[in-house]
Amino acid sequence: MFLQAGLLSLTLLLASRVLGVLRETALAAAFGSSAMADVLIVMLTLPDWLSGVLASGALAYVLLPRWAQETAGQQQATQNRVAWRLLWGALVLAVLMCAARIPLGALLLPGVAPALQAAVSAALVWSALALPAAMLAGLWAARLQHERDFVGLYGANLVVNGVLIGALVFLAGRAADQAAGQTLGAALVAAVLLRLLWQGWRLRARAGPPEPAPAAAPAPLPGWRIWTWAALGAGLPLALPFVARTLASGAGEGALASFNYAWKLVELPLVLAVQLVAALAFPAIAQAHAQTADAAGPGPGPDALATAVRSALVLAWTLACAAAAALLVGAPVIAALLFGWGRMQTPALGQIADWGRAGAWGLLPQALLALAVTLLATLGRMRFAVLAYALALALLLLAGALGLTAGQELMWALNAGFALAAWLAWSALGARAVRRWIPLRELLAPLLALLAVALLARWIGPAGGQAAPARTLGPEQVRELVSCALAALAVAAAGWFSGPQLRQALRA
């Protein structure tokens, strides 16, 4: 049962992420890296970003343990109470967004031209209209996660991305003007409403017969301190790329869009490899920790915990190094395949490839950080994870204050922030844990292979040289993709032959 659920979850997650990248591809084809693309990216991402920062992650952290101890009727009562509070809060926030849309637009898009101020204001109004549905969707997603309804959980993202891709394909052959923004805004509202219908249908299908109302008063909801820590723990990781994208807007029109596309080159392997490994390792690490805590004397508990951590760390690190090698070698051709369509111009593709290569190095500290945060969550020390991400955000804001707003500079600032956060998170675990849980030899082998690939790519030039529109791709680009795959495989092979940890992780 668990194997089938895991495979289904992985398949739907992969489909959701691929469709998300296709949405960015359709956006690039319809609007390129223009100023209008900057505006529309903010409009499309702001509702779900606000929901993720303010509610969605906190809902999962706080409500899942509570629901696990409640009956079905109590769960529904808790869900209804939280839903009304979310809706009222979202409505107030939406009104404030509409009232303050001009200064908010200047904050989120500092590099936008005066001629597009009306488009920015309209985009923020559409985002505000979509916000209540996005907030409620975050709550219903947490309930679907509790019910282990993976089809309902990940299928909701497929609904949203499918509607938006259809709208972008419709707009691709038309003028990329402010009227197109209005059409896409209406599609955004329709998409979030259809997502709610999908989630509501899945929840209704899972609902059992109604229970009689409990005689006792319902238990109070968790206090604000618990919600605050949960929101910070879930929201700060989402804030880092969002803030970097906003800072990039100050470099001029189209810079926000180009940075957004470049971050997608990094985000896809990050989510589908590094973060997925951390998520899959969480149950094994938690179970091994429980064995350690329950052990009355010497036994397999500590060894089981160390083995689980080392295996997950080696797998995440090796995948991060392999993905970084692929980007260092093949960023131009990958950028062309994903974004080199329609109105996307060649200089913008070159920027995306260069910034993606810089961001590739950030996969390494993020692999360390993902496992450290998993361990901190297992040990009940999430405040250190929050502090680590807060310091990374402070470093990014400092870079912006110093005027480092070019895309490549921001990528390196993000890399430095992730490295600082990873160092702090592992320091919070203690030197003894670091010595026990970090297998240096198995981590060093793929790192050395990655450095060799990087030096070779610098010496002979990265595959593809300069990024070109997708319509010009031919047999040469196929060879470049093969070189990209070979670079990733060489790094993975170094990890495979460096010791047994990677092989054990893959078998597990």
From TrEMBL:
The chain crosses the membrane at residues 39-64, 85-109, 115-139, 151-173, 179-198, 226-248, 268-286, 314-339, 359-379, 386-404, 410-431, 443-460, 480-499. It is a multi-pass membrane protein. It comes from the Bacteria. Keywords: Cell membrane, Cell shape, Membrane, Peptidoglycan synthesis, Transmembrane, Transmembrane helix. It holds the Pfam family MurJ. It is found in: Cell membrane. The keyword Transmembrane helix applies. Coiled coil: none annotated. InterPro entries: Lipid_II_flippase_MurJ/MviN, MurJ. Involved in peptidoglycan biosynthesis. Transports lipid-linked peptidoglycan precursors from the inner to the outer leaflet of the cytoplasmic membrane. Belongs to the MurJ/MviN family. This is Peptidoglycan lipid II flippase.
